[in-house]
Design goal:
With 340 residues, this protein is of the alpha/beta class. It has helices spanning 4-9, 27-36, 49-53, 79-91, 106-110, 121-134, 152-165, 185-188, 196-205, 220-228, 238-242, 244-254, 264-280, 285-289, 302-312, 320-339, and strands spanning 15-18, 42-48, 70-75, 96-101, 138-147, 170-178, 210-214, 233-236. The chain contains 16 helices and eight strands. The longest helix has 20 residues, at 320-339.
């Protein structure tokens, strides 16, 4: 594992991040992703401030020290409550905490947070000030370029100016509008057109802000392109989850210039003690392996790997023998490639 101080404290490194994704980037997913890349920043799923402050759901903050650099993403709309949640997150070991101003789901809107907050920049500023005052953690914001009928070219600069005035130094911008009525969360990730150029323009307008771009990025080549144009970071979502062996395993070498020292089999070897430990503690194997289905995407035997894990990991008492069975079943495809 790379040097922890270098990983967690050097915020000036070119930044690649895996987006926070509900039901996907849980602690098992993050531990797996960390075996693929030492340097890429990971994010939790969004955790609501009410769940922590009123519900006492501290289990949502569970993570392994080896996951760092990992960012806690919070959702909420009450400055005092978010300040308290920030303190809880800091005490749980998170050194960077992100405010969600981008999620378009109905459930999030009903709580007056997520993307709907872009309609209330003054409230967002008050939230950010309260979060910054609550702990030494770096506070960041993830937002859209606008919502509903807003004109992003007018709204986004004012929103960023408000954030900067509140003390925010790093903003992650999903380069799509969010339509709060008429589109599902899934459609909000795909239907509104991307406007990467607007995000690039925001970096030129606000050179003092660290700006990370998100939305529609599916390759490290694209990430390189955005970094070369002056952006401070690139966040990749579904592509990193669905093709982790293709993107994350190459990220340290191709984005950070580190020596490439491991392959997919090394990742599996690193996962074995974790899987054994978690299964012994009562975790179902499928809760871990569901995040590993894409490890061999694009490689011979990938379909067999997915099939064996999907069919066998749900069985009561399933453990490492399922990993072994999936690897053994893949061997004919690998042998066929060697012969050809």
């Amino acid at each position: 594992m790379a040097d922890k101080d270098k990983k967690s404290n050097n915020f000036n490194m070119p930044l690649l991040a895996v987006a926070p994704m509900m039901d996907w980037t849980d602690r098992h997913c993050r531990y797996f992703h960390r075996q693929l890349t030492h340097y890429t920043t990971l994010y939790t799923e969004m955790v609501t401030a009410p769940a922590l402050v009123r519900g006492g759901a501290l289990h949502l903050l569970e993570h392994q020290p080896d996951e760092h650099p990992v960012v806690l993403q919070l959702g909420g709309s009450d400055p005092a409550e978010l300040a308290q949640a920030t303190r809880i997150g800091w005490e749980a070991g998170y050194r960077e905490i992100n405010l969600n101003c981008g999620c378009p789901s109905d459930r999030v809107q009903s709580g007056c947070f997520g993307a709907v907050l872009m309609e209330e920049p003054a409230r967002v500023a008050a939230i950010c000030r309260a979060m910054i005052a609550a702990s030494p953690a770096e506070i960041t914001v993830k937002c859209r370029i606008g919502v509903d009928e807003q004109d992003p070219a007018q709204v986004l600069p004012r929103f960023l100016e408000t954030l900067a005035g509140a003390g925010i130094g790093h903003v992650i911008i999903h380069a799509r509008k969010a339509w709060l009525a008429g589109l599902s969360p899934k459609e909000n990730r795909e239907v509104p057109p991307l406007d990467h150029d607007l995000v690039l323009a925001m970096k030129r307008t606000f050179p003092e802000l660290r700006i990370t771009i998100n939305g529609g990025i599916t390759s490290l080549a694209q990430a390189h392109g955005f970094l070369a144009q002056g952006l401070d970071g690139v966040m990749i979502g579904r592509a990193a989850y669905q093709r982790p062996g293709d993107l994350l395993l190459r990220a340290d070498a191709e984005i950070y210039g580190a020596e490439a020292t491991q392959d997919r089999m090394d990742v599996l070897a690193a996962m074995r003690p974790y899987i054994a430990r978690e299964c012994a503690a009562g975790t179902r194997l499928a809760a871990i392996t569901r995040h590993m289905l894409g490890l061999f995407a694009g490689e011979p035997g990938a379909r067999t790997w997915r099939r064996v894990l999907s069919e066998q990991a749900h069985r009561p008492g399933a453990g490492l023998e399922v990993i072994d069975a999936a690897l053994a079943a893949m061997q004919p495809a690998e042998d066929a490639r060697a012969v050809s």
